[in-house]
């Protein structure tokens, strides 16, 4: 009987121990399960994060395996190459991509590239960088192509190179003239009359260089937003009267009449940097005089319409051929380089004028008929805050 009770007690004890063991194992398993779940979640979160980064970066990213299947294409790459869902699922990477550029062929990507390579696809310049994906076993699994759109940067760089080349050329031309005439003067044997001519040429070329350097400095200041603007509400009629007065002597020397087509006693207020807008008007007026033959006519008009002031300066001069009209606001562009240089032009006046007017929130437009004349409109916004049209 006692033995029976002893066996029962021992059995109960063993059962209890076993129960405790099972419970503890269960608890451990639960903890392990929780840990596993946590790891899975953080892996998913990490994947989401990487996916989010790839989705939002501006660079195109294309991952492709060695069999030619797209593994991942981010939205930038989809846009860059106008890829459809069907393209991506097709498993025909090579067929689809090689038509854009041979450097995008699977073979070329697998060969790898040192650093960045520039390629042109669909009118854009892309910087291509390739990374090979290698498995632990050392086998190549695929490649990732990174594509950065550098079209704008590239064209800016090209513009800078062009600009420096133009500046050097523009400075070299008057310098060569000055040097040639100075050497001729120094070598002697020049008549008094020739001496005067030569010195006058040297003087006018030096003036042109000074103008060029001044304009270049202004362009640099505006390009780097270092130009100081002193804007205040001022009367544009008064400005036009003053500008015309300043150009009258030059116009008279060519027997050109400048006519006002509006009532100059009307006051029209515009928020502007008076000196800079006067510079624009003087430039347009001086072009009108320069490119109009003797005895010609220049009209200056002022219109106020839809919260805007329109200054119109038209001439009946030589005009501009149609295909050149779109380029007259480009730096250093001149229809007839030799003629412009001869009359002291730098080819920068209209481009600077455009920058100044745009800085005022306005616009400058040019219409011309070759052999008939040119009309330049300077459009400036009127002050809005007083709810009136600016005419006093
Ligand atoms: P430039 O110093 O050569 O006058 P601009 O930038 O002021 O430079 O003008 C660019 C070019 O546009 C000129 O060289 C000229 O060929 C043309 N142009 C400008 N205004 C006129 C005009 N009123 N009539 C004819 N051609 C003009």
Description of the structure:
With 392 residues, this protein is an alpha+beta fold. It has 3 domains: 92 residues, PAS domain (Beta-Lactamase, 2-Layer Sandwich); 67 residues, Orthogonal Bundle (Helix Hairpins), CATH 1.10.287; 155 residues, Histidine kinase-like ATPase, C-terminal domain (Heat Shock Protein 90, 2-Layer Sandwich), CATH 3.30.565. Helix content is 52%, strand content 21%. The protein contains 12 helices and 12 strands. Helix 7 packs parallel to helix 12 and helix 9 runs antiparallel to helix 12. The N and C termini lie far apart (126 Å). The C terminus is likely disordered.
Which outline best applies?
A: elongated
Low-confidence segments, given as residue ranges, are 387-392
| CATH top level class name of the largest domain | Alpha Beta
The figure for the number of domains is 3
What can be said about the biggest beta sheet? 5 strands, antiparallel
Summing up helix and strand content along with how strands pair, one would put the structural category as alpha+beta
Counted by DSSP, the helix tally is 12
Under CATH, the homologous superfamily of the largest domain reads Histidine kinase-like ATPase, C-terminal domain
Round the mean pLDDT to the nearest integer and report it: 88
Global Rg: 38 Å
Distance between the termini: 126 Å
Along the chain, the helix and strand elements come as HEEHHHHEEEHHEHEEHEEHHHEE
- Which cofactor or ligand species appear? adenosine-5'-diphosphate
CATH structural architecture of the largest domain:
2-Layer Sandwich
Strand order of the largest sheet: 2-1-5-4-3
Helix share bin: 40-55%
Count the beta strands.
12
Strand content: 15-25%
The quaternary state of the protein chains shown equals: single chain
CATH T-level fold name of the largest domain: Heat Shock Protein 90
